[in-house]
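[job 4471] stage=fold_predict status=RUNNING
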Amino acid sequence: MIAAVADTHAIIWYLASDTRLSAAARLFIDNAAQNGDQIAISSITLVEMVYLIEKGRIPAQRFSELATELSQPDSILIEIPVDLKIARALSRVEVTQVPDMPDRIVAATAIHLDVPAISRDSKIKLSTIRTIW
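[job 4471] inference complete, writing structure tokens
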């Protein structure tokens, strides 16, 4: 079962054991793993990570770590492609609440899957999207 959708920074920080990931988010992910559940990431996260690497904001190894984790058959992480269903769910994410397109896609993925988003993004947290942070 998919327990939540993690945004780009949340999953980067989780994989890196970075203290910027909130205790509540880490506990939620750890509990999901213990329960045999999965945490979804949108395919937009992969694209956003390439962009962040190109801008020098994250090391390239973070992308490799995520790719390795996603390739494991028993991974806690599962990639959810941006498809027609996600595109349609975008209409349920108010552009005035969440203007950044990658964040809107993460939020739309959470809405489509009917699970919370794991995000520290202030606009997502202030929106109507269920958020863990």
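[job 4471] summary: The radius of gyration is 14 Å.
[job 4471] exit 0
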